[in-house]
Design brief:
PyrdxlP-dep_Trfase; Aspartate Aminotransferase, domain 2; GntR family transcriptional regulator; Arc Repressor Mutant, subunit A; single chain; DNA-binding; 42% helix; 16 strands; Aspartate Aminotransferase, domain 1; transcription; alpha/beta; four-stranded antiparallel beta sheet; PyrdxlP-dep_Trfase_major
Length: 493
């Protein structure tokens, strides 16, 4: 791979200056081999996402320094053995995100803003600092955290907690919390919850990691993931030695037969409120999924990430309640209270429970006792239910504000997935495309957005803008202002 010292137009490979930076320690040749290996192991339909991830990481880590000129799309495609269109899409997407910059006839370069931010801080938290408007999904309103009630509970619990309770805890979790959570989940989510089989963990990410290791010990080597779905699942389960296999969705859930054709015995699913599409799996599709799991002696890993927030529909119970020996149920307080608490739970089939407990013990010796005691008391005294009611009312108002603002500034926008959760899907009219140009203009104006394409492999060729827009973490006035700013940025306000 080469980096041109002249203009990186598509004829740069013939310019005679193509090898100027080949020997630089931070130049592309120092990491091209890693890209080759990475793309060679990736399924054909995932190579675009893999290439984008590799480019992002190269910029973040400094292997691609700010100001580095990248190869032309033709050169990079030839070096990696992929289509030029795949590289062009990657360059355009990362330019929209601010990692790269480009100009007509001047080539593609590593941007300054991302590297400058990386030099200032090593904070790896998933945030969008500096955005004038932030519609990236995944975060509740942290200002709604019940500080006064939590502080009062903290003092009360600390005063009565016996000294012996501050020793090494049961790796499954504090008995009081497991009992309180079992009752809460049975009442609110319809799960079959035995406190003896409930494991307290540090959020769904750790629950999925524990399951990944346990399943690997049972001979499982691959796992099916919803497409579209959460990109984090591939990384989390991959770290446990499981190969991700993407499975398509339709309007009712996972496409029938997709899991069977793939050969996997385990799938991760979000049946109550699919992420990010917002659909609830139909009753028929739930039955089909469980029938499949039984037929292959497999499991469904159910991520109930925001099941407590619904607005315009009847409650949708957890899949685990239909077959607790085929479904491992995961949840947390990350969306309902605050992700920084790092408290979640896992209800697993009996045959996996002992391995999970032992892996949890060797991983971290259990979660902090005081925080567990606090949450147990908060749940038992009704504070958790009161907090959820307050949040649900606030989030419904914000959802309505967002849909109204889109209707005003982007007339003709189709919204879906709005009956529950903390985000919506917005499909803008054709006149707002193409999506890459729209995202680039939004980024230049300081509007943080996440396209639907970020979450899956589907790339419709209609050029329309498809957005996953989070609203819970913003006030109604900020939502209205942000949509107006977006409209002006794309020339429609």
């Amino acid at each position: 791979m080469t980096v041109s010292g002249t203009s990186t137009g598509e004829s740069a490979a013939d310019s005679g200056a193509a090898g100027e930076n080949e020997g630089d320690a931070g130049g592309p040749r120092s990491w091209a081999g890693a890209w080759d290996a990475l793309l060679a192991s990736a399924p054909a339909r995932r190579r675009g996402r893999v290439l984008q991830s590799a480019l992002r990481e190269a910029v973040r880590s400094g292997r691609l320094a700010a100001g580095t000129r990248l190869p032309s799309s033709r050169e990079l495609a030839a070096d990696l053995g992929v289509s030029r269109g795949l590289v062009t899409d990657a360059y355009e997407q990362l330019t929209a995100e601010g990692y790269l910059r480009s100009g007509r006839g001047s080539g593609t370069w590593v941007g300054d803003a991302v590297r400058a931010a990386a030099r200032k801080t090593r904070d790896r938290a998933p945030r969008t600092p500096g955005a004038r408007a932030d519609f990236v999904p995944g975060t509740p309103d942290l200002a709604l955290f019940p500080r006064a009630a939590w502080g009062a509970t903290h003092r009360a619990v600390l005063a009565r907690l016996p000294h012996r309770a501050l020793g090494y805890p049961d790796p499954r979790g504090l008995p009081e919390l497991r009992t309180a959570l079992a009752a809460l989940l049975t009442r609110r989510r319809g799960v079959v919850a035995d406190p003896e089989r409930l494991l307290v963990c540090s959020g769904v990410a750790q629950a999925m990691t524990l399951l990944g290791f346990a399943l690997h010990g049972h001979g499982v080597r691959s796992v099916g993931l919803e497409d579209p779905g959460s990109p984090e699942n591939s990384a989390v389960l991959g770290a446990a030695g499981l190969r991700p296999v993407l499975l398509p969705l339709d309007s009712q859930g996972l496409v029938p037969g997709a899991a069977a054709r793939s050969g996997v015995r385990v799938v991760v699913a979000t049946p109550a409120h699919q992420y990010p599409s917002g659909i609830a799996y139909s009753a028929a599709r739930r039955t089909e999924l469980l029938d499949w799991a039984r037929s292959v002696d497999g499991f469904v890993l159910e991520d109930d990430y925001d099941g407590d927030f619904r607005y315009d529909r009847a409650p949708v119970g957890a899949l685990q309640g239909l077959d607790p020996e085929r479904v491992a149920y995961m949840g947390s307080v990350s969306k309902s209270m605050a992700p920084g608490l790092r408290i979640g739970w896992l209800l697993a089939p009996e045959e996996l429970t002992e391995q999970l407990v032992e892996r949890k013990r060797t991983m971290d010796l259990g979660n902090p006792v005081l925080e567990q005691a606090l949450l147990a008391d908060f749940v038992q005294q009704g504070g958790y239910d009161r907090h959820l009611r307050r949040c649900r009312a606030a989030y419904q108002r914000r959802r309505d504000t967002l849909t109204a603002a889109l209707d005003e500034h982007f007339p003709g926008t189709e919204v879906s997935g709005i009956a529950a959760g903390l985000h919506i899907i917005a499909l803008l009219p054709e006149s707002y495309g193409p999506e890459v140009r729209f995202l680039a203009r939004a980024a230049a104006a300081g509007v943080a957005l996440r396209p639907l394409a970020y979450h899956g492999t589907a790339r419709p060729d209609d050029g329309r803008v498809r957005l996953v827009m989070g609203y819970a973490h913003q006030s109604p006035s900020d939502i209205t202002r942000g949509v107006g700013l977006l409209a002006r940025a794309v020339g429609r306000g």
